[in-house]
Structures are given as C-alpha cells and as structure tokens.
Amino acid sequence: MRAKPGNWLGERLDLSAVRELISHKTVPVHSATRWYYFGGITLFLFAIQVITGILLMLYYRPTVNEAFESVRFIMTRVEYGWLIRSIHSWSANLLIFVAFVHMFSVVFTHAYRKPRELTWLTGIALLGLMLFFGFSGYLLPWNQISYFATKVGTDVAASTPLIGPAVGRFLRGGEDVGGATLTRFFDFHVIILPLTAMALVGIHILLVQQHGMSTPPWIAPSGVRQMRFFPNFFLRELMVWYCALAALGALAAIFPWELGEKADPFASAPRGIRPEWYFLAQFYTLKLIPSHVWIFEGEILGILGFGLLAASWAVLPFWGADSAGNARTRLVTGAGVVMVSYLAAFTVLGYLK
User: Fold this and answer.
1) What is the pTM of this model?
2) Confidence class of residue 69 from pLDDT cuts 50, 70 and 90?
3) What is the CATH number of the domain that holds 213?
4) What's the number of domains the chain is made of?
5) What's the chain's average pLDDT?
C-alpha cells in the first residue's frame, strides 16, 4: 500500500488499452474542425442535466398535491435551489439547441457516410430522446402552462392514425392528463430515459472512437494535418466547456426560470399557450393546415407528414450517399438548407403568432 496510487491501481486494472487509445487518438485539423466541438458540448450539457436532476430529485415529490409545492420549496427554501433549477431548465434548452447544431454540422460536412451509418442512427435516436426528455420534464412543475401544454401535446399524439388512442392512453395513464400522467412522466424522465440515453451515448461514443473523426468530402484525407486528442484537442474542448458553463451560469442567474401558477384542470387554458420552442415549428404548421384537406382530416395529414419526414431524415445515410459511400453533396446540402430554413422560420412565426 506504500506504492503510488497509480501503480497500485495499475496492478489491479489493465488500463493499457485506455492508455493506448489516448496516446494514439488524433483529430483532423481543417476548415470544419470547429464543428467537432459541438458533440463534446452536447455530452457536457447532458452531464449537467444528470447532476442537477439528481439534486432536484432529492426534494421533488411527483404527486398532484405535492409537485408544485415541492418545486416552490426548492426555489424559495432550499439554499441555491432556485439556481440549480434554473441551470437544469436552461441546460435542457441549450442541450437540445446544441444537439440540433451538432446534427446539422454532420449533415453539411457529410459525416454520415460509410462506415458511419450507425453513428448517425444512434445520434438521431439520442436527439429523439432529448426531445422526449424536454416533453416529459415540462410537466413536472405542475403549473398552468405545463399542464395545458402537455394536454395539447398528448392530444396531438392521440390523433395519430391507428395507434393514436393507445399512445394517448399510454402517455396519460388514462383518458386525460392527471396524477397518473405526472407519475408516468416522472418515471420516464428520471429512470427510463436516462438509462436508455446513457446506453446510447456509450454506443455512440464507441462508434466515434472506432471510426474516428470524419473528414469532409471536399478535403483530401491524405493532406490533412492531425492533432493529438490528448492533451491538445482535449484542452481546447475543456475551454469550450468552460465557456458553455459560463453562459449557462449567466443565463440561470440573470434570467431565473419562473414557476408560474399551480395547475388547475378546471380553469380555462391560458391565452396564447404554446409548446416549448423545439416543438413550435410543428405546432405552427398544424395550425396552418385546414381542418379538412379533400376527404382527409388536416391534423392527421400533418402528423403523417411529420412522421414521414422524420423517417426520411433518420435514413439519410442510405439516400444521401451512393453504393460506394460517396456523399450526394448537392442533394443533402439542399435538403439540409431547406430543413434549417423551415425550422428557423416556423419557430419564429410560431412564437410571434
């Protein structure tokens, strides 16, 4: 036991593979290298979510009678509780935003090409989980806005053809949003989704390590300078994390997350109620679709359209590259520009209308 801790641990754990990976892993340096940082920022914000979520869970009570009061207790009585909750809420929004940026950076640098199809698919699955994290966590404070926003969201899910009624009952735990819904969303938010996300994160990182960082197709791999991951790239990534933490702390301190009024199922829905920003584009699109289009219900057509769009986007590596794995750059870049423009424009319109 007098030996150095590193030697003592090394005798009991074979860390040679880890040391080998750290010493030989490199990162290509080119004009698009800056986009590599967004994957690390996403992972960092997810870690912030886990840490602050555990702290909040120490005081939160997932029942209709206690949920709102427990959050108010956290914000008013627990030391720095308001700051932890604000950091948790702001980091959730920043996490989804950065995840979208990371996804589109992969699209525009065509990093989905062979042999990275599974890396793309696990990334899309993680983005879907992040959106479900946001949807399930939105209800937990049990205030007026979250209650009626969840009611609207589950009603939309229940309108899905064939499986809609079953999905609606599964999410709500009954025919309407109530205590069973709150309990289910809490279980989703703190048990099912975190465990699933951690497993997918592990697979995603393993795939990135196996295939390495992708080089854009317009850059010849043979002429790209390589940077050692540790310590060169890692220290740069660490500085980016510091900046993200500073921005997060500033937002949480200057713009603390409000609690609002306790949910009252018998009250009228607040005027101008709308979902969180990451669902606004879909929400506004559904509002624009007429109630009936020929013989079809407009809402059902909209839901089917979103489902088809999501499925097509998920299989992008299979239509965005030829059989040899070469990217169809113009097609995918054009699709990416259209998608970014649509999401940005309709999100802003959904916020203003």
Assistant:
1) 0.93
2) very high
3) 1.20.810.10
4) 1
5) 91
